[in-house]
């Protein structure tokens, strides 16, 4: 049976474009690549233990460390996109049959997706494989080329990816001590794993919100025209509409904006809690952790030229601001209720802060009583 998603996006073309944009990194073809796999295989269990001690969250099973190249990261994310978009792209049209797509539309979608994935693949250092269940045989890891995977028989659903070429480039550029930086990266990804596997309802809740956004993603020409008018009008008035979430927020419906706000509040909390946990877990184990955090934060927030434009259009700038707000939210509620105040949130989805509460922690403290 054909995949309905294939009717709307030329995935092979998207991959070719993404790989072309990503380019190759000579360092990854050198003797420096092999130690990456050994280091992350060694550091991921250590990071998992340090994070568990800091958070108190119990995570089932073991995480798999997988060092991949940029093409491998592209393959994994294209597989995830195909699965996420399959329901909406295979939805019936007005005549009850799946909506058809023209060759131009398939090509345009491939160019857009390939360009974005290629650009991002040069910047991502690590990624926790959140979208796939640990027992899912169709997980993106199956699409990764030979040589980029871990040991045979591993499932990709609980995989932590590390993009080898980008890590080597970053270590060289900033003169990072490799062993320390790799453990620091492992802490970051294992913190997210602890959240989404140690809090039983968190991953299903996140996927419910994402699926809601996908379900609402039906093309609406009038909404696009209205979004363009709003963007132009706001620009004339000096308003930074892209700062609230990039183009996605500008063209979103009211329902989509509500879902985007819920996802934003949740991810602000997750990232803020992640940064706090990571910093504390690193104490006594990674002497250069504070420098790593400062350098990487400066790198993200001081993009220039085309990189800056793409960050704004894709909503990355807005997300960075939200993540900073999440860290400040954690600090505020801990100042009021102690160092494990976030544990109250992990009890149930209703305790998640909204984006408004992230920016105003007092509102959350008033709504959610102390344990």
Task: Give a written overview of the molecule.
The protein has a 3-stranded mixed β-sheet. The protein is 61% helix and 4% strand. The termini are far apart. It has helices spanning 11-22, 33-55, 70-89, 103-121, 164-174, 178-198, 202-215, 221-236, 246-250, 254-282, 289-301, 305-313, 316-337, 355-359, 361-367; strands at 64-68, 126-128, 159-163. With 371 residues, the protein is mainly alpha-helical. The longest helix is centred in the last third of the chain and has 29 residues, at 254-282. Mean pLDDT is 78; it is low at 92-100 and 132-157. Helix 1 (11-22) packs antiparallel against helix 3 (70-89).
Looking at this protein, list some descriptive labels.
371 residues; mainly alpha; 3-stranded mixed β-sheet; 61% helix; globular
Structural topology:
Layout: H1 11-22, H2 33-55, E1 64-68, H3 70-89, H4 103-121, E2 126-128, E3 159-163, H5 164-174, H6 178-198, H7 202-215, H8 221-236, H9 246-250, H10 254-282, H11 289-301, H12 305-313, H13 316-337, H14 355-359, H15 361-367
Parallel strand pairs: 1-3
Antiparallel strand pairs: 2-3
Helix pairs in contact: 1-3, 1-4, 2-6, 2-10, 6-10, 7-10, 10-13
């Amino acid at each position: 049976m054909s995949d309905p998603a294939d009717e709307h996006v030329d995935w092979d073309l998207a991959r070719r474009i993404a790989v072309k944009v990503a380019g190759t990194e000579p360092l990854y073809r050198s003797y420096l690549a092999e130690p990456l796999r050994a280091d992350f295989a060694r550091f991921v269990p250590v990071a998992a233990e340090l994070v568990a001690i800091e958070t108190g969250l119990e995570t089932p099973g073991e995480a798999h460390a997988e060092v991949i190249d940029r093409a491998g990261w592209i393959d994994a994310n294209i597989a995830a996109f195909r699965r996420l978009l399959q329901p909406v792209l295979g939805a019936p049209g007005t005549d009850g049959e799946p909506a058809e797509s023209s060759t131009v539309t398939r090509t345009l979608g491939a160019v857009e997706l390939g360009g974005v994935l290629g650009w991002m693949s040069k910047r991502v250092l690590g990624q926790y494989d959140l979208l796939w269940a640990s027992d899912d045989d169709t997980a993106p890891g199956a699409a990764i080329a030979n040589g980029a995977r871990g040991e045979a028989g591993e499932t990709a659903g609980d995989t932590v990816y590390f993009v080898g070429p980008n890590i080597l480039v970053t270590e060289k550029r900033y003169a990072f001590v490799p062993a320390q930086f790799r453990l620091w990266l492992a802490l970051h990804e294992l913190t997210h794993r602890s959240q989404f596997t140690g809090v039983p309802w968190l991953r299903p809740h996140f996927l419910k919100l994402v699926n809601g956004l996908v379900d609402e993603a039906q093309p609406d020409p009038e909404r696009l025209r209205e979004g363009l008018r709003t963007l132009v009008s706001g620009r004339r008035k000096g308003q930074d509409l892209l700062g609230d979430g990039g183009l996605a927020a500008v063209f979103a419906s009211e329902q989509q904006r509500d879902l985007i706000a819920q996802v934003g509040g949740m991810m602000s909390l997750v990232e803020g809690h992640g940064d706090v946990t990571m910093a504390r877990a690193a104490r006594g184990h990674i002497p250069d952790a504070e420098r790593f955090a400062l350098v990487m934060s400066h790198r993200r927030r001081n993009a220039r030229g085309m990189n800056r434009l793409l960050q704004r259009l894709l909503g990355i700038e807005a997300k960075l601001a939200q993540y900073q707000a999440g860290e400040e939210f954690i600090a505020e509620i801990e100042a009021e209720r102690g160092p494990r105040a976030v544990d109250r949130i992990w009890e149930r989805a209703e305790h998640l802060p909204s984006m408004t509460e992230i920016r105003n922690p007092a509102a959350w403290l008033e709504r959610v009583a102390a344990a």
